[in-house]
Amino acid sequence: MRPPVHIAVTGAAGQISYALIFRLIAGDLLGPEQPIVLRLLDVPDAVGALQGIVMELVDCASPLLDDVVITSSPQIAFQDADLAFLVGARPRTQGMERQDLLIVNAGIFSEQGKALNETAKETIRILVVGNPANTNALIAMTNAPRLPPAAFSAMTRLDHNRAVSQLAMKCACTVAEVRRVAIWGNHSTTQFPDIHHALIRGQPALDCVDFDWYAQDFIPTVQKRGAVVIEARGKSSAASAANAAIDQMRNWLYGTPDGDWTSMAIPCQGQYGMADDLVFSFPVTTHDGQYQVVPGLELNEFSRKQLALTERELLIEREMVAHLL
Question: What residues pair up with 185 in beta bridges, in sequence order?
Answer without folding.
Answer: 281
